[in-house]
């Protein structure tokens, strides 16, 4: 079967946290497309770019890429200023949103993107759990309806493109009820160009990945909360006993606020008590102990 062209000449990435940065990295390095990166926090943008430089240097040092390729990738990434905001995404063929895991925030971003970006551009979200169908509906402007020509055209270009971060090989592709086949095909082709394998999932809370992973992490936190075992023994059990590359508490430390937001979406989205977030997870987020990104979680990290 002939490969489908993604037709993306420039990609926009909204959010330069762990995920936005990772997506910008693979898009610039692997898919070799110009990337416009935007974050509402200038501090976070600077931090993100510094982290990208570090990742590129590391890959060069390990002999994974040449210094020429690293330089070319870095040169493909430019930043959109806060004055320009999402208007700076005007000339992109695809925008991938990787802002914080919050429905109303994502709805506001998609509403604005659908006004500012060309009607033919794909609007993808990297959400871990939120309904892609709801996000797609937020692109329908006032005066339009879900069945009007403009309203349906706006929503059919929205898709879930769930990257994990620069290292894992997978992207989960999720169709909203409204997503067109052309949007799905092009989004998949772009993920492949980024060097990823693609699986597909229905638009259910947590899709496949987080419907399985988050209850697992949550259950490990409950073990710690109940004093069943120590942090180190919980992680060691899964690492050595089940050959997991990381223990569940170590994995949760990638972002405890994101874990909690996903767990809450699973709980409210299904009404199933098995998804109730652990009290310890809630309290750690209350304390701003978010894991790696804040320097403290189940483990301590250097600044
Ligand atoms: N961390 C993971 O392992 C992981 C994996 C897959 C998917 N995700 C999903 O990716 C998304 C981002 O997660 P993350 O871990 O990178 O979070 P993060 O907290 O590291 O980064 C989020 C970034 O979004 C920015 N932001 C918030 N509101 C914004 C706005 N209105 N406009 C522009 N930027 C805005 C913040 O300043 C921050 O830099 C979430 O939806 C999350 O569920 C996370």
UniProtKB/TrEMBL annotation:
Residue span, 3-hydroxyacyl-CoA dehydrogenase NAD binding domain: 10-203
Recorded superkingdom: Eukaryota
The entry's keywords: NAD, Oxidoreductase
Record-level Gene Ontology MF annotations: NAD+ binding; oxidoreductase activity, acting on the CH-OH group of donors, NAD or NADP as acceptor
Domain annotation 3-hydroxyacyl-CoA dehydrogenase C-terminal: ranges: 206-301
Site for Important for catalytic activity, residues: 162
Family annotation (Gene3D superfamilies): N-(1-d-carboxylethyl)-l-norvaline Dehydrogenase, domain 2 (1.10.1040.10), NAD(P)-binding Rossmann-like Domain (3.40.50.720)
Binding site for NAD(+): 15-20, 39, 101, 106, 128, 165, 293
UniProt record similarity statement: Belongs to the 3-hydroxyacyl-CoA dehydrogenase family.
InterPro entries the record matches: 3-OHacyl-CoA_DH, 3-OHacyl-CoA_DH_NAD-bd, 3HC_DH_C, 6-PGluconate_DH-like_C_sf, 6PGD_dom2, NAD(P)-bd_dom_sf
UniProt feature coiled coil, ranges: none
Any one Gene Ontology BP term: fatty acid metabolic process
Protein name, per record: 3-hydroxyacyl-CoA dehydrogenase
């Amino acid at each position: 079967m002939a490969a489908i062209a993604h037709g993306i000449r420039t990609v926009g990435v909204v959010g330069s946290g762990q995920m936005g940065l990772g997506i910008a990295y693979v898009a610039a390095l692997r898919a070799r497309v110009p990337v416009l990166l935007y974050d509402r926090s200038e501090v976070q943008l600077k931090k993100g770019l510094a982290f990208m430089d570090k990742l590129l240097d590391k890959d060069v040092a390990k002999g994974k890429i040449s210094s020429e390729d690293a330089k070319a990738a870095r040169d493909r990434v430019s930043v959109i200023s806060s004055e320009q905001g999402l208007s700076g995404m005007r000339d992109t063929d695809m925008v991938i949103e990787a802002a914080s895991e919050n429905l109303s925030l994502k709805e506001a971003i998609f509403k604005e993107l659908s006004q500012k970006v060309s009607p033919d551009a794909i609007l993808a979200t990297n959400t871990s759990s939120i309904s892609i169908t709801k996000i797609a509906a937020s692109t329908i402007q006032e005066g339009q309806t879900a069945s009007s020509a403009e309203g349906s055209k706006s929503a059919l270009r929205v898709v879930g493109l769930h990257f994990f971060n620069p290292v894992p090989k997978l992207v989960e592709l999720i169709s909203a009820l409204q997503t067109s086949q052309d949007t799905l095909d092009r989004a998949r082709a772009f993920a492949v160009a980024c060097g990823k394998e693609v699986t597909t999932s229905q638009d259910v809370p947590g899709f496949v990945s987080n419907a399985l992973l988050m209850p697992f992490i949550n259950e490990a936190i409950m073990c710690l909360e109940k004093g069943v075992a120590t942090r180190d023994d919980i992680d060691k059990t899964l690492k050595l006993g089940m050959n997991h590359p990381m223990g569940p508490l170590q994995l949760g430390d990638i972002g405890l606020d994101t874990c909690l937001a996903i767990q809450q979406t699973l709980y409210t989205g299904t009404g199933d008590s098995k998804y109730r977030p652990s009290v310890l997870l809630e309290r750690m987020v209350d304390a701003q102990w978010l894991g790696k990104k804040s320097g403290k979680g189940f483990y301590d990290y250097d600044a």
